[in-house]
Amino acid sequence: MKKTINYRLTMAEKQLLKAKKISQKLLQDYAPDEIAALLEASSERARELNALAEFQSIPSLGINFASELISQGYYTLEQLKGKSAVELFDAFEQYCGTWADPCVEDSYRLLVHYIENCDDSKRWHFTAERKAYREQHGFPVNRPQKPWYKSEQYPKMKNYQQD
Predict the structure, then answer these.
(1) What is the pTM of this model?
(2) What pLDDT, on the 0 to 100 scale, is given for residue 121?
(3) 32-59 as b/e: b if 16+ CB within 10 A
């Protein structure tokens, strides 16, 4: 597990943890129902916080990538098992309505590699694999034409590139 998980807690949530003398670091050790009780939060918020911790436990994947997975309806690594990096990346582009920076596809490759191998030693060595795959198979015919940097979400997606 990463040393620091970014939960993007509200001030009220931080104050509740402080009052209960619970470190944010320890939050990753609680189940969603326990998080809901601790933070007086909805089950959906607790599920989101639990997912943020689980996704950020993968080295080199940060809060923005974790948030994007949640926005697409994923809350556990188990939900992602059996999916290919290409499938997840192509779905991400469809979800965003723009094509994404190639490093995002590398992030999906890292995610799938981790899920399949529980190996956190391979961090950012997916560029050659991605390029070879795309050279052989290309992109889907329905790939969005608009680039991510021309999206209305650009500031959000710009931050995403800096995970």
Answers:
(1) 0.86
(2) 74
(3) beebbebbebeeebbbbbbbbbbbbbbe
